[in-house]
Amino acid sequence: MSVILCTAGYDHTIRFWEALSGICSRTIQHPDSQVNRLCISPDKRFLAAAGHHTVKLYDIKSTNPNPLLTFEGHTGNVTGVAFHCEGKWMVTSSEDGTVKIWETRSGTIQRSYNHGSAANDVVIHPNQGEIISCDRGGSVRVWDLAENNCSHQLIPEEDVSVSSVTVASDGSLLCAANNAGNVFVWQLLTTYERTQLVPVTHFSAHKEYITRVLLSPDVKKLATCSADHTAKIWEVANVAATPPSDESSSSSLSAAGAVVSPFMSNGTTTSINGHHDPEKTNGTDGSNGSSSVTAGEPKPYPLEATLTGHQRWVWDCAFSADSAYLVTACSDHYARLWELHSQQVIRQYNGHHRGAVCVALNDYSEAR
Questions:
Q1: pLDDT tier at 333 (50, 70, 90 boundaries)?
Q2: Do residues 48 and 56 touch, judged by C-beta distance below 8 A?
Q3: What is the spatial distance between Cα 60 and Cα 346, in angstroms, rounded to a whole number?
Q4: Which helix (H) or strand (E) holds 249?
Q5: Which pLDDT band holds residue 280 (cuts at 50, 70, 90)?
Q6: In the beta sheet, which residues pair with residue 305?
Q7: Collapsing DSSP states into helix, strand and coil, what is residue 248?
Q8: Whose CA is closest to 154, among 274, 277, 278, 266?
Q9: CB 172 within 8 A of CB 218
Q10: Which sequence spans correspond to the domains of the chain?
Q11: Under DSSP, is residue 247 helix (H, G, I), strand (E, B) or coil?
């Protein structure tokens, strides 16, 4: 199977598709709960399906419908999942407010980090030494695995849930999106073996919730999915705002290296919305007081395409390896394959009888 494409959602099934024909080649039952997120291991051997409280690991090349392993330890919906580049470990985020690192072979928890608010998404930096997660309280956190702590906390917009994060395949950019429909972009710089985050731009991308933000493999496009029934493609362009002065830039770094977003100042604690009780942060949570930075008004990324035709919320998306195609998953039960150059749907995947909320695609060559 050179192309692995799978979708899942609220009908308690995981479906594998022949990408070009649109034929469903295999269906796995997931009776315990809906499936919130899917992730294919880099070697295409395993599929991780994140559900309510658990992540189930399936053998892609086997016809066995049962999971090889069930990762148990979360107490809420698992909202994000990602594999280490060699598949040795896996990271998850959950509505229980934690981000957990798991040993893939045994399913044991290696580390657990506390957000103090429901965690919505998590990604692994290409350097495999940092993970980046976001939460309902409005924070984006960078966790340094070598130091075993939170090295940066960003609050792009006060009291607005950050729904999704994505990091560039070359480690150059970090993007986050929130429930107000806004996108925030930082440049990632490594100096003296420490990552610094420099604001690039922020802009209003949708008038409704953004459910997913994703950088393309070639880092030339940014996809956003939304409750407004559309997905949009943005050109990743050099649109940096006027840089802050040296004085204000230096004041944005606390002694512990935590950076506060210049898009919104914050104090030493994270603001949490009324639905979740805040937990007092401590040193391991990386809550460090620091002043904000005022930068020039940034320009938004240019809009390349608005992908219309979905009938309900667009929940998730995945780029092809060549960045020329995008697969979207929607509450209208369908997944769609888009050719980005023509902005046309070239394949629709029909089979789910409830909302399709997650999609995973791995079409990289076996020599990768």
A1: confident
A2: yes
A3: 25
A4: helix 246-251
A5: very low
A6: 233
A7: helix
A8: 266
A9: no
A10: 135-308
A11: helix
Residues 6+ apart with CB under 8 A from 193: none
Asked whether the beta carbons of 176 and 165 are under 8 A apart, the reply is yes
- Name the token pair of 220: 């030339």
Closest C-alpha among 224, 228, 234 to residue 310: 228
Residue length, the chain? 368
Prediction pTM value: 0.85
Is the pLDDT score of 273 beyond 50? no
E strands within 254-324?
A: 303-307, 314-319
How much is the pLDDT for 298? 79
Rounded-to-integer distance, Cα 177 and Cα 161, Å: 9
* Beta strand residue intervals within 115-161, DSSP E: 119-124, 130-135, 140-144, 149-154
Phi, psi of 243 (to 5 degrees): -65, 150
Q: In whole angstroms, what is the distance from residue 359 CA to residue 330 CA? A: 10
276, 97 contact by CB (below 8 A): yes
Would you give the DSSP letter of residue 283? G
CA distance 236 to 213: 13
Q: What is the DSSP letter of 259?
A: B
Centroid of chain to Cα 125:
11
